[in-house]
Each structure stands twice: as C-alpha cells, then as structure tokens.
Design a protein that fits this description.
The N and C termini lie close together (about 10 Å). The protein is of the alpha/beta class. The chain has helices at about 20-30, 50-60, 85-90, 100-105, 125-135, 165-175, 190-200, 235-245, 260-270, 310-315, 335-340, 370-385, 395-400, 405-410, and strands spanning about 1-5, 15, 40, 65-70, 70-75, 85, 110, 135-140, 145-150, 155-160, 180-185, 205-210, 215-220, 225-230, 250-255, 275, 280-285, 295, 320-325, 345-350, 350-355, 365, 385-390, 415-420. It binds uridine-diphosphate-N-acetylglucosamine (UD1). Uridine-diphosphate-N-acetylglucosamine binds near residues 122, 162, 166, 167 and 329.
C-alpha cells in the first residue's frame, strides 16, 4: 500500500502548473457519446478517475487513442451498448454522467444506482425527476436504473430544488435532442457546466444561459465531433494556493482562470494572505498570522465544498476561532477528526465546525477520507512538527496528477513510499 510521507518545516515556493479540471473532463468524455465520430479532448488530466471514465466508454463500445499524456481521441462511432455496470459506478460515482448522453443517443440507458460515499448519501433523485419531466421512464431493477423513452424526449421546464452539478449536466445532455425547448431553472453555475455547454454548442447544440441559474436548450437533430480543450482545474489551483498560503510561499499557480476562485481568493485575503492576480495565474504568499474568517460552502459562485478541507487546514492554525458551515455534503467533516490527530482543535456540531486556532500541527499517521481531505492532510504535513504519514492516498490519485512531484518541485520534503499492508492502519 502506498502512503505519502511529509517532513514538516520545509519552505515551499515557486511555480506550479495545474491540469485540466477533473470535474469537467469526466463529463466532456461522457458527452462524446452524443457526437458519433472522433472527438479530441486536450488538457485532460492524467488521473485515476479519467481512466475509470475511459473504461466506462470502452465498455459501451468506444475506442480511445492516447495522442499524448493529456490528449485523448475518443471514437464513439461504434458505441452500441448502453449499460454501465456497478463494478464501474462503484469505482466512481461520476460514471452516472453517461446516463444523459446514452438516453440522448439511444433513447435508453441502464446505469447502476450509485451507493453512498464517504462525503454523504449523494442521492440522484433530482437527476431522475428532471429526466422524467423530459419523457424518460425509470424502473429500478436489481440495483440498476433502467431508463427508457416510450414516447421520445420532449422539452419541458425543470426546476431543481438544489443547484446540483450532476443533475444540471445530465439534464443538459439529455435535452440536446429533445423536441422543443427545455428550461433548467435553478441550474448549477459551476465553470465545469459552462465548459460542457461550450463543447456541446461547438458540436452543434443550442444551449444558452450556462453559467446563470436558467439554462435554455433548444433541441437539435444531431451533434458532430470536435476538438475541445478542458478548462483549467480551479480546485487543483486552489489546493496549491492554500499550500502556498500555509507554508509561506510565494507560490504561483498557473493554468486556470482566477475568476473561477472568486470567493475563495477574497476569503483568503481576509485571512491575511497576500494574493497577486495574473491573467491565468495567482501568486499566494503569507508573512503574518492567519486571521480567523467564517466560511460556508455553497454552490458556485459560493465557496466550493471541494476547498473546504484545505481551508480548514489554514483556519486550524489561525490566531483565533471561527466557524465553517458545510451546506453541500453532510459527511464532509471526517477530515476534521484526522486533523485533530495532528493537534487541531475542532468541534463539530451538525454541519458546523467550530475551529479554534492552535499555534502548530504535530506530525502524525492520518488517513485520507476523500480526495480533497487527502490533499489537505499532506498540506498540513508541510507545516507540522516532525513527519506526517498519509494513507489511503488512492483518493488523492483519483483527482490530482503527480501531486507529490509537484510539491517536491516547490521544495516540499514529501515522498510517496510503498509499505507492506500489515504495517499500515487500514480502511
Ligand atoms: C460535483 C463534483 C464534486 C463537487 C460537487 C459540488 C463531479 C464529478 N463532482 O458532484 O466534486 O463537490 O459537484 O460542487 O463533478 N443531491 C441530491 N439529489 C440529486 C443530486 C444531488 O440530493 O439528485 C445533493 C447531493 O447529495 C449533495 C448536493 O445535492 O448534497 C450537491 O450535489 P451535486 O451538486 O449534484 O454534486 P455532484 O454533481 O455529485
């Protein structure tokens, strides 16, 4: 089993380039199903989740040529199956993103029902309700969602009760070929939604309003393959900005749009972190104390839940107390217990975490509960007294490309090592 060992106290500074966004690449890959032929995606991160989505597409009959480490040519002309089994969905929930495209292309789909995960129940009821409004019928059979469209797909107005990213994406993709106009009200506004709508429009779709709460889709007859570049990963960027802020910096993070981290960067400035804005980069550094600031996670443009753990890491060392409120995923405070093993003082009350700043962390053996928590624990190790050993790092591999190498290039004393299973505290 692999672990990451970090020796604290090494200054980090320099420049780091972020990859394309995981949460965009996965959905863009799924969307290629709708445009038979070869779509080329560039700036695709080389991470475990992308490999799983590759397996999902191959299972459906697609072929994938890796043109270079970050460029995939996906040929969906011979996709002739519409079933995604639990063996793949259980590896990655985002596999359910093929449901909309399969319904669009074949009028049917069989997708395994995802189970719960470490950060919450993560229901998909809004996906199903929205798709039903477009004419999809569902049967749940032996753990599979069996979708069919007895009367075809027709545009409709769908009001989401929460601005769900996944539901907005599945609905947007399912309505591209629906007869007439579909309106998604209270749609998610994440940059990854805009990226998906942009590619679908390049393919010939008629989607307006992506990035606003109301998305309007006018049905079209067909889509054609394109070449598309995946948007830069704002969460990977935010993670390295947080690391630079924590360990001093300056760290320049390149390859993303700083507007995609709007509220995060404003909060970091209130925390006493110096943020310099470039066109496609941000430089973060800190010379004084971290100031306590309350945070609450919300759908975009609110504070992203995917930056909550990394930010808790900073606030746990702040000069004073503050509250973090998690409004998106109910179980996302598992990370706090691990950080407490490193000396943090955090009290959890429902979806609130009261964080009382301590002067320093002490290195400990800790486990990643999800990918952002994993990255945050490695970050905490950068400034901890002694050595921190982070296990369960398969979570980090899901979403961060060469995480340890990038930290090493900034000067961190982090290494990835393999330890015999019996020596590691397991799941
Ligand atoms: C996506 C991102 C994830 C990010 C999250 C919120 C991917 C692969 N993952 O996840 O990294 O943390 O957005 O920004 O893109 N919900 C329901 N019913 C539904 C759908 C969602 O109750 O049908 C709930 C979820 O349980 C959760 C909340 O709504 O509590 C938000 O979920 P959603 O925005 O859909 O997140 P994902 O698309 O799963």
């Amino acid at each position: 089993m692999d672990v990451i060992e970090v020796e604290g106290g090494h200054h980090i500074e320099g420049r780091v380039l972020v990859e394309g966004a995981k949460n965009s690449a996965l959905k863009l890959m799924a969307a290629t199903i709708m445009a038979p032929g070869v779509t080329t995606l560039t700036n695709v991160p080389n991470i475990a989740d992308v490999h799983v989505m590759g397996k999902v597409l191959k299972e459906l009959g697609a072929t994938i040529e890796v043109l270079d480490e970050h460029t995939l040519a996906i040929d969906t002309s011979s996709v002739d199956r519409w079933e995604t089994p639990y063996s793949l969905v259980s590896q990655m929930r985002a596999s359910t993103a093929v449901m909309g495209p399969l319904i669009s292309r074949f009028g049917k789909a069989i997708v395994a029902m995802p189970g719960g995960c470490n950060i919450g129940a993560r229901k998909i009821d809004m996906h199903l309700l929205g798709l039903e409004a477009l004419g999809v019928s569902f049967r749940i059979d032996h753990g599979d969602i069996n979708a069919s469209t007895p009367q075809g797909l027709s545009g409709n107005t769908v009001m989401l009760s929460f601005a769900s990213v996944g539901a907005t994406e599945n609905l947007m993709m399912a309505s591209v070929f629906a007869k007439g106009t579909t309106i998604i009200d209270n749609a998610a506004r994440e940059p990854e939604i805009v990226d998906l709508a942009t590619m679908l429009n390049e393919m010939g779709a008629h989607i307006v309003g992506a990035g606003t709460p109301v998305i309007e889709i006018e049905g079209v007859g067909e889509l054609h393959p394109v070449v598309h570049r995946v948007v830069g990963d704002r969460i990977e960027a935010g993670t390295f900005i947080a690391a630079g802020a924590l360990a001093g910096g300056p760290v320049t993070v390149d390859g993303f749009d700083p507007a995609h981290l709007g509220i995060v960067l404003r909060k970091y400035e209130q925390m006493g972190i110096d943020i310099q804005y470039g066109e496609r980069s941000v430089t973060a550094s800190r010379s004084g104390d971290i100031l306590p600031v309350d945070i609450q996670t919300l759908p975009f443009p609110g504070f992203p839940t995917d930056m909550q753990a990394q930010t808790m890491c900073l606030l746990a060392l702040a000069k004073g107390s503050c509250m973090i409120t998690e409004n998106v995923f109910e179980n996302r405070f598992m990370f706090a217990s691990e950080l407490q093993r490193m000396g943090a003082k955090i009290t959890i009350e429902g979806h609130h975490a009261i964080v009382r700043g301590v002067p320093a962390f002490s290195g400990a053996e800790v486990q990643a509960s999800d990918l952002r928590a994993g990255a945050a624990l490695v970050m905490a190790g950068l400034v901890a007294d002694g050595t921190t050993v982070v296990s369960n790092i398969r979570h980090i591999d899901r979403g961060y490309e060469r995480f340890v190498e990038k930290l090493q290039a900034l000067g961190a004393a982090a290494v990835r090592t393999t330890v015999p299973d019996e020596d590691v505290f397991t799941d």
